[in-house]
Write a structure and sequence with these properties.
Distance between the termini of chain A: 12 Å
Number of helices of chain B: 11
Order of helices and strands of chain A: HHHHHHHHHHHHHHH
Number of strands of chain B: 0
Largest interface: A-B, 35 and 44 residues
CATH class of chain B: Mainly Alpha
Strand content of chain A: under 5%
Structural class of chain B: mainly alpha
Strand content of chain B: under 5%
Structural class of chain A: mainly alpha
Distance between the termini of chain B: 7 Å
Oligomer: heterodimer
Order of helices and strands of chain B: HHHHHHHHHHH
Number of domains of chain B: 1
Number of helices of chain A: 15
CATH architecture of chain B: Orthogonal Bundle
CATH superfamily of chain B: MetI-like
Amino acid sequence: MTESIATDTVERRSRILDREVTIEPPWRIAVRRFVRHRAAVISLALLVVIGVVAAAAPLIAQHDPSSIDLRARNEGPSLSHWFGTDRTGRDTFARTVYAGRVSLLVGVASVAISIGIGALLGAIAGYRGGFIDSLIMRFTDVMMTFPAIIIILTVAAITGPGLWKTVLLIGLLNWTVPCRLVRARFLLLRNLEFVQAAEVLGAADSRIMLRHAFPNVIDVLIVNATLGVAAAILLEAGLSFLGLGVQAPTPSWGNMLEVARNISAMENDLWQWAPAGIAIVVCVLAINFVGDGLREALDPRL
Amino acid sequence: MGRYIQRRLIINIPLLLIVTILCFLLLQATPGDPLNAYAPPDAPLSVEQREALRERLGLDKPLPQRYLIWLGEALQGNLGVSARTGQDVLGVIGGRIGPTLILMATALVIGVSTGILLGILTAIRRNSIVDMALSSGALFGISVPVYLAGLVALYIFSVRLGWFPTGGYTTPGNGDLVDRLHHLVLPALVIAIQYIASTMRYTRSAMIEALAQDYVRTAQAKGLPFRPVVLRHALRNALIPIATIIGTYIPNLLAGAVFIETIFTWPGMGRLFVDSVNARDYPVVMGLTLILAIIILSTNLLTDVTYALIDPRIRYD
């Protein structure tokens, strides 16, 4: 580690001496650092595989995930049904693969919502400061006090379950962390020369926030969004497991686990719920490792 | 100190009011006429009789006034009746608090004590094989969701190995202490995993930081044996941040209870919550939300106060 830093410095110095002033662009430094993080690279490869399998689900699964075959219920694994079939004779392998689509969709879509809200509120709070800042931050504190699952359960009791409702609820509840991160950055940026210069030149607040300040928070947002996808997938699976998230016939890893709430089904039909459980753990661990790798790659202090 | 506690209390009161307003509004947003809770739509009542009833119950009043009526009743302990069983909501919830508290407290004690022990161990054996094994184990423990850990534990230890019962609070007809403990161990351990892992991580980094301090070097330099230096000098200082971490565990413990009580058919508030949501028993759902909010807000207050008490450097006045 120290060795590579030392050679880096020597290289850079020799380049300067050779008057060859090429400065490595920041994204390339990040890529170089990310590649050094072995667990993150393997996880990223794994995620690409999961993504491709989910996207190409119709090509990979030989069965329709929701076609019911009452003559082939609760079967074990076989050549035609790799992971066996569930209580209504649906192919478990096809459901696991298609459920990956649902989980990734919920993860990415809800994070897009929460990052959008969090970045907007955080930017306003950090840039404007004063009363608006304390108002937004107190609201954030309150939101952080209550566990998302309890709020979601309360609201789900009224709105009823469903895929898009789940996406919306998770998105609307997880914006507090990105909001705090963006605010903290904007508080610093507000006093930096290039932002003040833009202000003096008469740029509108919205332009300063978007064009000058925002590019400087992208790094923290990328890391937070990555970890947020994992958290959202876990939350969706948990809700669906309780029967309050994504509903059958749409397959989701969480609602595939629901079978195991019955002890005899848990005991006799391991093939109906274990693949979904393994998929959740693998996917979430991989996303978390990639998030860690990105954090280290993008942090200028390291 | 007194003024600090006072101020925290005053901050928490509007918060609680906001929660009650939200609960009330959500209750109003439930599908159907609120009158149905008192007189079902198929009841043989004329339109005039329905309107008379509506007026008598105050349901024709504007929203803010209805909120005040509802709040007044709630303050006196009347949260309405369960739509499923017709029982008093507070009574229904009251019967479920005990089992939840026992489960949470056991899990918290196991989680925090084991976590601190492992944290000290990994900090003093930093970068050893033990440290690496435990640290990556902790990362795994944090990543695995509690419902999955619960399912796997139930499958292996109860269903396959038969070491523990497959759920419930006691065996019907047998309620002695051994039987209760037998039912308690597995769900409590499963909940504890997460807290062992995160307490261990916090303790480890706090201890590493504390061990690098000058006062630790001084203590070692004057010839104190290793054990008192670690336990009295480093640990006591490392424990201060950990005390606040424990406070943040309480809301999460309640969230975890929702899953674990469902999986282990534990008769606590979490399972009542899920069952009531599934049955669309709105009065019970809102009652639970309100009580959980009160519990969470008071633990937050307690955490802040404890923090000020144990760290003499912190003075909020």
